[in-house]
Amino acid sequence: MRIFILALEGVFDTGLATMFDSLSMANALAQATGIAAEPFDISVVGVRPEVRTALGMQVPVRAIGDAAAPDWIILPALNHMNAEALVPVLGRDDVIDAMAALRRWHRGGARVAAACTGTFVLAESGLLDGHAATTTWWLSALFRQRYPRVHLDAHRIVVPSGNALTAGAALSHLDLALSLIRSSNPELATLVAKYLVYDTRLSQSVYAISDHIAHADPLVERFDRWVREHLGTAISLDTVADALATSKRTLTRRLNAVFGKTPVEYIQDLRVERAVHLLKTSKLTVDRIAEQVGYADGVTLRTLLRRRIGKGIRELRS
Q1: CB atoms within 10 A of CB 238
Q2: In what side-by-side order are the strands of the sheet with 62-63?
Q3: Model-level pTM?
Q4: Buried b (16+ CB within 10 A) or exposed e, 54-67
Q5: H or E element at residue 73
Q6: Given CB 3.0 to 4.6 Å as the disulfide criterion, which of 4, 149, 155, 237 pairs with 129?
Q7: 2-195 sits in which CATH class?
Q8: Average pLDDT for consecutive 10-residue bins of the chain (318 residues)?
Q9: Are 226 and 263 in contact (CB under 8 A)?
Q10: Domain assignments of the chain as residue spans, ordered by start
């Protein structure tokens, strides 16, 4: 299986190394154990003759030239933590050239993959239009606003869709690599995960800081703060809209733009988030916790917790 790892200036060191090391380990373990798996022929390529990582290390890249399309092109993250730093990079000359190469290879039959902020380069190229995808959780609002043609599911760590494969934040580069290895041989992916002492992650949701994402919109930030302050009470959308001096329609539209959720869904998520925290950090019963997060009894809370666990398992199996 021919794989190009496309390294751009400022590539996230850990992301690049993780992809290369994981796939190389898969080759070595397959050979050592006799597991029947197609080997990974890995090349680190670049659109410029010299590429440096975010930490300043020079990457030995192969010039892409007119190279024929590989089976997969992988885009590790660019090491930019916020929108102010990331968005200008998407208009950089080498990134524009990289997107042209991605489209050319894709037309030649290559499949595309990216993790963390690398997903923005894929989305910017148009290759994710009409597909489901994930991205790094703290930039999900920006991604959703910038790429409305992409069906974003920022809860998931890895999302396969058509000829594209995307992964979430930072260390999800490992999840992306294991997904590629699994497509070659599931037994080999399991073995690599054991050698890397990898723990299965069901979702990005358990890591996401929702009030951090809410900063993308002042009204949504105020909504988030108000709901958190009143989480133990019965909350109606009319009450929240009046308190924030806005309309239910505006609130619904803005929540959908930032989180892809309705206000009711978001309130429910905050209640479950608080309940999970209390289950981990206190000795309160489920019924008592249910009261503290705004539910009349523990039945509803237990149902929601089971539903969340079940969803996480289904996402893992997909």
Answers
A1: 9
A2: 62-63, 41-46, 2-6, 72-75, 111-115, 164-167, 158-161
A3: 0.73
A4: beeeebebeebeeb
A5: strand 72-75
A6: 149
A7: alpha beta
A8: 97 96 97 94 95 96 87 96 93 96 95 97 97 91 92 88 92 94 92 89 62 71 87 91 93 85 87 84 90 88 78 51
A9: no
A10: 2-195, 210-317
